[in-house]
Amino acid sequence: MNFKANIMDGDGVVRAMMRISHEILEKNKGVSDVVLVGIQRRGVPLSRMICENILKIEGVKPLIGILDITLYRDDLSLTADHPVINSTDIPFGITHKHVILVDDVLYTGRTVRAAIEALMDLGRPKTIQLAVLIDRGHRELPIRSDYVGKNLPTSQTEIVCVNTVENDGKSGVDLYSIRD
Prior knowledge:
CATH class: Alpha Beta
Number of helices: 5
Strand content: 25-35%
Helix content: 25-40%
Shape: globular
């Protein structure tokens, strides 16, 4: 894997997440009945950023949960003999709520499909909206994001790596090539 470019530094991530937070508030006319659900792994710290931003803006902290979609993946048999199962922690009901799914990168749409399936096993939300830091295109399913930090057209030989302080010790977005 060869480094190609730094797409967004830590300050850029902070600005993008603040803009997404404002857009969520505007679209939902506040946070009444809005809950945030971060998709494991890097969607979780991003959802926490949105939660803190909304607290700063509105003075109200929305409920926040963590969703592991590993067992809902349609490529589970292809990923590993022993998949790593992370925890799902949604300590509130999602029925009749506006659920904002948060993830780092939207690519084929398969992760989002799995997340929607997992959510539907937990209840019947009023709406499910999607917030992503990076939308790189290449959809295989008819899925789109409601809130996007940055649209980044890529080739299929490129990899977008989102770093978060919680997971990687630094924040930013880098682009790599899987070919020389």
